[in-house]
Model the fold of this input.
Amino acid sequence: MSNETKSYPVSLRWTHQYGYRSGEWANIIGVAMVEPVKLKERPLEPRLCYTVMYQDGVYDSVPMSDRDNFEIKANRVTPHTMTMSLNIKPKIDFDISIEE
Done:
């Protein structure tokens, strides 16, 4: 018996109808503390989020606290999926500037 562990890429998709790109799988590429856009009514605390990237290279942050509104699956790596992931040209559709 081998003591080796196997690691697989992991994908996430929103299951709630109002989740960003609900029903579409995105690759989890990291974890980060994200500070939501501040609302006039009340400031929001930073929260731990999955950083995901969709097949077209668009990034999003998914709060781990919303776990009832998304599902996660492990992906088996094949030569086809490896080629697909290498051909992605990331693009960002949100402002990542930090204002003090």
Observations:
- Helices lie at 79-86.
